[in-house]
Amino acid sequence: MPRYMDVHSGFKGVTKEQLAEAHKQDQAVEGAEGVHFTKAWADPKSGKAFCLSEGPSQEAVLRVHERAGHPTTEIYEVSIDVE
Amino acid sequence: MPRYMDVHSGFKGVTKEQLAEAHKQDQAVEGAEGVHFTKAWADPKSGKAFCLSEGPSQEAVLRVHERAGHPTTEIYEVSIDVE
Q1: Where would you tag: which of A68, A77, B31, B58 has the fewest CB atoms within 10 A of its CB?
Q2: Can you give the pTM of this predicted structure?
Q3: A69: exposed, middle or buried (C-beta count within 10 Å: 0-12, 13-18, 19+)?
Q4: Alpha carbons B70 and B23: distance in angstroms, whole number
């Protein structure tokens, strides 16, 4: 299953509780699209957030974010990872 | 220890072996700065890459990337994460 990293702006001042709530909203609606959000990171200073997901397509991932109320248009298929 | 996500461009066409080599180059010089690169993802189509690290400061992380030969200026302190 392809993996994606998407990027959000506008999370300035976000708390851990708020990020957890946003992530739960994604996970509540992701099933219908065959998507799974695995992890999210945020920088409350700049307002940037990054979400890692698996799903059938970029469009499916973005639809989940849109339905959950925090749309973005910036997404990358991260087909390679190392650690 | 603060955690950071940094963003690179210019990795168009990168292979898993090349990303692993770049990541190893970071890890070979990170110790002097008290930095540790934990994970990297890349999208060979767009050339975007994302690196997750821990370290004492953004500047320390960027110095490691610069010494390893793949500098960037885009970095965020991701003080919050959820899964």
Answers
A1: B31
A2: 0.96
A3: exposed
A4: 10
Q: How far apart, in Å, do the first and last CA atoms of chain A sit?
A: 19
Per residue in B27-79, pLDDT (tens digit) is 999 999 999 999 999 999 999 999 999 999 999 999 999 999 999 999 999 99
Whole-angstrom distance, CA of residue B78 vs CA of residue B61: 13
- Helix B16-29 vs helix B58-68: crossing angle, to nearest 10: 120
Using alpha carbons only, give the angle B43, B15, A43 rounded to the nearest 5 degrees. 35
Element (H, E) at B27: helix B16-29
The reply to whether residue B77 touches residue A48, judged by beta carbons under 8 angstroms, is no
List all residues 6 or more positions away from B26 whose beta carbon is below 8 Å from its beta carbon.
Answer: B37, B51, B64, B65, B68, B70
Chain A with chain B: Cβ pairs closer than 8 A: 85
Length of chain B: 83
Mutation for testing the A interface, residue in B41, B53, B73 having most A CBs under 10 Å: B41
ipTM score over 0.90, yes or no: yes
Identify the residue whose tokens are 């930095």.
Answer: B35
For A38, list phi and psi in degrees, rounded to 5: -100, -30
